[in-house]
Every structure is written in structure tokens, then in C-alpha cells.
Design a protein that fits this description.
By secondary structure, this protein is mainly α. It is 71% helix and 6% strand. It has seven helices and two strands. The chain has helices spanning 3-9, 20-45, 50-62, 67-74, 78-90, 112-134, 139-168; strands at residues 94-98, 106-110. Strands 1-2 form a two-stranded antiparallel sheet. A hairpin with a 7-residue loop joins β1 and β2 (106-110).
């Protein structure tokens, strides 16, 4: 069953159909798959993995961070992040920069100019399509969607942390 068919079959909020949970789970899986596949395609265009691409996204949003913080944000081990940062630095997407207050520490920083130049052509059509999509919703509906997405994002972060902690035990 494709995503469009799932959406057409998805119950409205006022429905009391027992299949609501199942449809929600399927929609979540379809959305998750679509997001992962989109980011894989964006990364592949630049010869990167999805994890490397997400690391660059985090560095863009957070600014320079330590390798340890990057590992925590990505849910990876410090050793895995060392290799990831090495690959990004060799490819010219990131660099290690010294901490101005503590010579023993370094931060990882993204090459923001390069990322903007390379990512804008990939993401601008997506931004336009989503803007067009949201034009069809009322402010109240957009508020509900925003709340739902924020809540799902929080749950995903919590569940990622849970799985990461269980793995390290």
C-alpha cells in the first residue's frame, strides 16, 4: 500500500475507527522512510553517507561543537565520530578548530559557505513544495500540525536516547 493510499484511508480525528493506531503507525513508517531516503539522496549527491550529512546538519544548526558533543547528538560512539570527522575534513566539509580558551580542546566546525552553495539547490524545491502544501491549511490546523511534529520529534529523541543507553549497558 502506497503513501497516497494510506493518506486517503487515514481516519479523521472525529472517527472512532479501531484501525487509527495501525494507520498512524503505517503513516509514520512511510514518512520516516521518505525522510531517510530523501536525506540519503542528498548525501549521495555529495559523496557522503546519511550519518555524515546529518553531522553537517547538526554542525550547521549548533555551530562548532566538540567531537564528544557531536557523538552524543548523533548517538554514535566517540571513535565512530572521530572517523566521521576525519572523512568530512578530508572532503572539505568540516574542520577541527582549536578552542581559544583551552589549547587541549578542539571543536568541529562546518564549512558553511560550501554547504549553503551545495545544499540550497537540493532543498529549495522541497521548501517551495512544503510552502505550497501549507497554503492549504488554516492557522489552527498548522498549529496542530506544528504541535504534533514537535511532540513526535521529542518522542524520537527520547527513544533514541533510550536505545543508545541500552546499547551501552
Amino acid at each position: 500500500m502506497g503513501f497516497d493510499q494510506l493518506v486517503r484511508q487515514a481516519p479523521r480525528r472525529d472517527d472512532t475507527d479501531d484501525d487509527t493506531r495501525d494507520v498512524g503507525e503505517l503513516l509514520g513508517r512511510e514518512l520516516s522512510t521518505a525522510v531517510v531516503m530523501f536525506h540519503e539522496a542528498v548525501a549521495a549527491r555529495r559523496g557522503l553517507t546519511a550519518a555524515e550529512n546529518k553531522a553537517l546538519d547538526l554542525l550547521t544548526r549548533l555551530g562548532p561543537v566538540s567531537s564528544g558533543e557531536l557523538a552524543r547528538q548523533l548517538g554514535l560512539t566517540p571513535g565512530a565520530v572521530t572517523g566521521l570527522v576525519d572523512r568530512l575534513a578530508r572532503a572539505g566539509y568540516a574542520q577541527r578548530v582549536p578552542d581559544a580558551t583551552d589549547r587541549r580542546r578542539t571543536f568541529v566546525a562546518a564549512n558553511l559557505d560550501r554547504l549553503k552553495a551545495e545544499l540550497e539547490p537540493a532543498f529549495e524545491p522541497m521548501r517551495q513544495a512544503v510552502a505550497h502544501l501549507t497554503d492549504g491549511y488554516s492557522p489552527a490546523q498548522l498549529g496542530a500540525i506544528r504541535t504534533f511534529l514537535a511532540d513526535v520529534t521529542r518522542i524520537l529523541h527520547e527513544q533514541t536516547a533510550r536505545l543508545t543507553e541500552e546499547q551501552s549497558d
